[in-house]
């Protein structure tokens, strides 16, 4: 991986620590309003937490992938919604590596800029002089209420049916459909958004599967199909970390019916805490290993690069499953206390189950890797 100073990572982690009381104070508002409250969004943005992958040449920190995951994980341990939006928003600052530099500088001049992305549907881009007329509706536009630009995945009318382009549309041309009524990650505001025949200049468009980097550094050579899932890889792990810490925090005071001994003194609880820490550590290490192997494989033979990409998908699915197992185990140990909204574990349960529904972490990733390991094609065109 690139040898980058850890200082920008530490600066981001320090900012999160400073913002922890504010995040806690706004939790009820996040659930009620189904979005980040404006003061919290502005504080996160002003701390630079939505531009972690902005290129160094444009004044950004350009964190390495593992440093990026560290920040998203720490944010998710504070609150799943906050981690999810930092992962998505900061992940999209990477598009500055594919845009003409004047465009990128204009878009990211304001530290409160936020670009929403959605790849769960494919819109239509009709070629016109100077660009495209774009039409479509996309789901899961995380952070839609705060965005000034929206990226919708499109196919070009009468073009290559396999080609996908990223069309970045100004907010004025977007209709946000307020349909985010969900159990977990409520504050992420991951609403559908719609565009009808909006003109998008050619310089606001780039390929999805194989964009041409305009910035140096291996981060921008990383395939989008790998970078997009990695941007939220730390979310389930951070929630799992919070669940373990939450259970450990009450274990000396918590008793169960029929026993006067605190939970911490019960061998079952001790064993489950140990198992949870082992699962967490193994899942995290596997993710970091998979990303490290992928970054190295980018400069190797195509077959090795293909398998490394499959390995990243495998690690994502494993981390998701491990995180769910950890959170559910901690909730079972806590007993009935875990169903009360006043207890942090309740939020961990619903947030982790929402986060792992993302296609990047789907159980199908086990099949995909198995196919590659057996010498078969991946079995999907989204790879």
Q: What this model shows, in words?
A:
The protein contains twelve helices and seven strands. It has 383 residues and is an alpha+beta fold. The protein folds into three domains: 101 residues, Butyryl-Coa Dehydrogenase, subunit A, domain 1; 93 residues, Butyryl-CoA Dehydrogenase, subunit A, domain 2; 141 residues, Butyryl-CoA Dehydrogenase, subunit A, domain 3, CATH 1.20.140. The chain has a seven-stranded mixed β-sheet. Helix 8 runs parallel beside helix 10, helix 8 runs antiparallel to helix 11 and helix 9 packs antiparallel against helix 10.
Main attributes of the structure:
383 residues; alpha+beta; Butyryl-CoA Dehydrogenase, subunit A, domain 2; Butyryl-CoA Dehydrogenase, subunit A, domain 3; 3 domains; seven-stranded mixed sheet; 7 strands
Q: How would you sum up the major sheet?
A: 7 strands, mixed
CATH architectural name of the largest domain = Up-down Bundle
Level of helix content? 40-55%
Strand content: 5-15%
Radius of gyration: 21 Å
Give the structural class: alpha+beta
Order of helices and strands: HHHHHHEEEEEEEHHHHHH
Which class of the largest domain in CATH terms?
A: Mainly Alpha
Oligomer: single chain
